[in-house]
Amino acid sequence: MAKTDARFLYVFAHGAGAGMNHPFMQRAAEALEARGIATHRFDFPYMQAKKSRPDPPAIAEDAVRKAVAEAARTAPGLPIFAGGKSFGGRMTSQAQASQPIPGVRGLIFFGFPLHPPGRPSTTRADHLTSVDVPMLFLQGTRDEFAQLDLLREVVGRLADRATLHLIEEGNHSFKVPKRTGKSESDVMNELADTIQQWASHA
Length: 202
Known about the structure:
Layout: E1 8-13, H1 23-33, E2 37-42, H2 45-48, H3 57-74, E3 80-85, H4 87-98, E4 104-110, E5 135-140, H5 148-158, E6 162-167, H6 184-201
Parallel strand pairs: 1-2, 1-3, 3-4, 4-5, 5-6
């Protein structure tokens, strides 16, 4: 999609283990672009260098800021949202919490990584109280990186700034069991529809 045809622009950061061209990232970008939301994907420095260990937060957060600035330069005047899959969303939120990123209207998280699997905690969300823009949490109910009761607690503390949309029986990658009757495409369309509706009112 040409950015001139879009209503919004989403700066879309990847997860810790896969770069911007991962199939999930591509499918999400296509679904969003079909709904008038252009995407700007980028690789964190460690991914560009083909390293497996994610960058320290300061470097990752700087990369987010640079990506948003580049996105704004390429699509002047288009409302910007930022966020990403797992690690990418968390680094975006930390950047926004430490110093608001110019032009960012809201944050969208695909599977916010609240804690490592098997180690429930909410400390990774402490900074979210300093985020001054609306936030949309897209989360599977079986996400091993976010125990549901803890995530609800976090979102509740954020009050009107946060919206939680759950994919029933989805895991951290939004995969659902066959018994749900939902296909991968059904889930992606639900995610994209939710973003479109939320962005229109954010």
